[in-house]
Design goal:
259 residues; 2 domains; ten-stranded mixed sheet; 6 helices; globular
């Protein structure tokens, strides 16, 4: 089990950014940072949104702009350190292919206690998972623990089971509480697809009708294979409804009320 002092050094989130002063679903990201900061023992300032807003005008805009309408042009990495320092850094939001993505299964890191399932200061294992996946010809690393899919290296997996219910891994099992899932869930349920948590076993994955992965950077992407094995039928109703829901995400510069 991993216990890292670096994990307690900061809490952070990567948020869609228009290159000016608007962020995507900022209040949801800030609320998650507040929840995770408590678990990591980091004091969360009352004027956090105001501090972030004051930083945006001075952030360097990356040269490479993502012009895919299903993704945001850039990412903004907002970080709060254990010393109370708030920072904002612009980042490239890579363009993902429209084809179904290929996943590579990797052992999930096992974090100790309240670190588990947070956006903490030591994300090296997730970066390493991405590199392992890419070195093995995949697009993304999918993190497994005890035969169950927990999370992705930059995304949250969601599968449509044969019973018509969409399932994702529960937060208490180590999955990050995904902002993107929070955004699309009401639209899926209004469209007749209930969204529930469950342990995503290999059996569930193999019989799933369809799988997607979603994240603040990539948006909604279909998952086609895991370790070369075909998964369901990509670009089905789960994908189409989720992508439509993501297109309605809130992009605003008015997020001070999230304080």
């Amino acid at each position: 089990m991993t216990n890292s002092e670096e994990a307690h050094s900061s809490v952070w989130s990567a948020i869609g950014w228009d290159g000016h002063k608007s962020l995507t679903s900022a209040s949801l990201h800030f609320d998650r940072m507040r929840r995770h900061s408590r678990r990591l023992g980091i004091d969360f300032p009352d004027n956090f949104g105001e501090q972030v807003s004051s930083l945006l005008g001075a952030v360097l805009v990356p040269e490479d702009r993502n012009d895919d309408p299903s993704q945001d042009p850039y990412l903004m990495v907002i970080r709060l350190t254990s010393e109370g320092v708030v920072s904002a850094t612009g980042a490239v939001n890579r363009k993902w292919p429209s084809r179904p993505l290929s996943g590579i299964s990797i052992s999930a890191p096992t974090w100790e206690g309240d670190i588990r399932g947070t956006k903490h200061g030591d994300y090296r294992p997730y970066k390493e998972a991405r590199l392992i996946a890419e070195d093995n010809g995949g697009d993304i690393g999918l993190l497994f623990e005890n035969g169950c899919l927990i999370d992705g290296d930059r995304c949250a997996p969601l599968l449509l089971d044969s019973d018509g219910v969409a399932y994702h891994s529960p937060h208490h099992d180590g999955a990050l509480d995904s902002v993107t899932l929070h955004v699309i869930k009401p639209y899926l349920e209004e469209s007749g697809i209930p969204v529930r948590t469950a342990r995503l076993t290999l059996g569930m994955i193999e019989r799933s009708s369809e799988m997607i992965v979603c994240g603040s950077g990539m948006g909604i992407k279909a998952l086609g294979t895991i370790d070369g094995r075909k998964i369901g039928k990509p670009h089905g109703p789960l994908f189409s409804i989720s992508q439509e829901a993501w297109s309605k995400r809130e992009i605003s510069s008015k997020f001070l009320e999230a304080n």
